[in-house]
TrEMBL record:
It comes from the Eukaryota. Residues 375-465 form the Ig-like domain. The keyword Transmembrane does not apply. The lineage of its organism: Eukaryota, Metazoa, Spiralia, Lophotrochozoa, Annelida. Keywords: Disulfide bond, Glycoprotein, Leucine-rich repeat, Repeat, Signal. This is Ig-like domain-containing protein.
Length: 465
């Protein structure tokens, strides 16, 4: 949009040049930047009488279908070339020869199917190459040979299945976008030649699930690595990742203990929304001392331990919307922290809500509503008879808020501890103690104890052998 606005402003100020200008085009040639605008004119070819001093050529929304060899070679002063929405299907070799000053090449919304070797050869000053929204199926070896790009955009080429291993040979790219394609995980190997230059990789919404090799990103130093919605389940590749920003939104990865990945200690922005990251432990993030942004939306999180407070206080942004927070005594600390001047932008200003035991805004609730209930044992057999060498099980069900830990202790000193479910919407926990082959050594009193933050309750069972 900004290019169009600039163009309109320049044309209104400078007017149409008295020199040569193609029919249906408007030219500004009496003061730089020298512009020729021919967009939306139903042109089927690039006119031959475009002023040779043109620096910016706006040719979008025409029907030229192909770019022939040397079609633009006369315009060696071109810096910006916009050919989007031109129904281009074929680009012949050397179509861009001679454009040694070109900085921006926009080929969006065309019907290009293949990028052949050396297609952009000679564009020594090109910084931005836009190829999104085409029909590209493959990219051949040496397609980008010699380019030194700030930005390469291949987004929304949904038929793109193959990037050849040497497509980026002798190429530098700072930001690469290959989202909404049909690439395989092995495509990461084709990116290896970009290790020294690539700082941002946006590879999102892939049409097939991705499973990266452990060494896929070893040697890269990213400013941002965004891998959202790629069906990623295996995260071993994180061992080799070095980045300031990591985005894994919308992948079914579950909780991640980031202390296992020393290379990620420098991460500043971490996006983990809608990833089934339902358990949030402080130990996962303690080593990430530079973390300033943490996105944990829509993860089914029901509780947050108070030992997360130091981590949250070190953030600038914390996103927790769309979770199923259970506001019992365990979240009283969070309410107090939210109502204090924490200096942290939480949910971009939107209120954080409890889902259970009632739907209310956390900060609107008095402390007395954040309560826990002492556990009770609701199901247990008081006496059990078993024959020698028979197997049996002792079942104890405890109920409380939060659901209690169940601890079984036997007369011979064996102890079994059954932790509660992580979801705070569940108030019961079942603990089973197994006697595999009963002997006289197993007879006596067994104690079942239910324990939570509000207290404990013990019931004893007598086993006769």
């Amino acid at each position: 949009c900004w290019l169009f606005c600039v163009l309109v402003t320049l044309l209104s100020l400078s007017g149409k040049s008295m020199g040569s200008c193609p029919t249906k085009c408007t030219c500004v040639t009496n003061s730089p930047p020298f512009i020729t605008a021919c967009s939306q004119q139903n042109l089927t070819s690039i006119p031959e009488d475009i002023p040779v001093n043109t620096e910016e050529l706006y040719f979008s929304k025409n029907q030229i279908h192909s770019l022939s060899q040397g079609a633009l070679s006369r315009y060696e002063n071109l810096k910006n070339l916009l050919l989007s929405n031109c129904e281009i299907e074929v680009i012949e070799p050397n179509a861009f020869s001679g454009l040694i000053k070109l900085i921006t090449l926009d080929l969006r919304f065309n019907k290009i199917q293949q990028l052949q070797a050396y297609l952009f050869s000679g564009l020594i000053k090109l910084q931005t190459l836009r190829l999104e929204d085409n029909d590209i199926t493959s990219i051949e070896n040496f397609a980008f040979q010699g380019l030194n790009l700030t930005r390469l955009n291949l987004d929304r080429n949904e038929k793109l299945r193959d990037i050849s291993g040497k497509a980026f040979h002798s190429t530098k790219v700072e930001q690469l976008r290959i989202s909404n394609s049909s690439l395989s995980s092995e495509t990461a190997e084709a990116l290896v030649p970009l290790k020294d230059s690539l700082r941002e990789l946006h590879w999102q919404n892939n049409q097939k699930p991705l499973r990266f090799a452990t060494e896929a990103f070893v040697g890269f130093t990213f400013r941002a690595l965004k891998l959202n919605n790629n069906g990623i389940k295996d995260i071993d590749f994180l061992e080799g990742v070095v980045t300031d920003e990591l985005s894994l939104d919308d992948n079914p990865i579950g909780p991640i203990d980031f202390s296992r990945y020393p290379n990620l200690r420098q991460v500043r922005k971490l996006h983990l929304s809608n990833t089934s990251f339902s358990i949030v432990l402080a130990s996962y993030f303690n080593d990430m001392t530079h973390l300033s942004y943490l996105g944990l939306e829509d993860n089914g999180i029901s509780s947050l331990s108070e030992d997360l407070r130091p981590i949250f206080m070190g953030l600038q942004y914390l996103l927790l919307k769309g979770n199923t927070l259970h506001c019992n005594c365990e979240l009283r600390w969070l309410k107090r922290w939210l109502t204090a001047e924490s200096g942290v932008n939480i949910n971009n200003g939107e209120a954080l809500e409890c889902v259970t035991p009632s739907v209310r805004t956390i900060t609107s609730m008095d402390d007395v509503y954040f309560t826990c209930s002492e556990p009770v044992i609701v199901t247990i057999s008081r006496t059990l008879n078993v024959s020698e060498e028979e197997g049996t099980s002792l079942t104890c069900i405890g109920e409380g808020d939060p659901a209690p830990t169940i601890i079984w202790s036997s007369p011979n000193g064996d102890v079994a501890s059954i932790p509660p479910p992580h979801s705070r919407t569940l108030t019961e926990n079942q603990g089973i103690f197994h006697i595999r082959s009963a002997s006289l050594h197993d007879r006596g009193e067994y104690a079942c104890t239910a324990v939570n933050l509000a207290g404990n309750n013990t019931v004893k069972v007598h086993v006769n052998v």
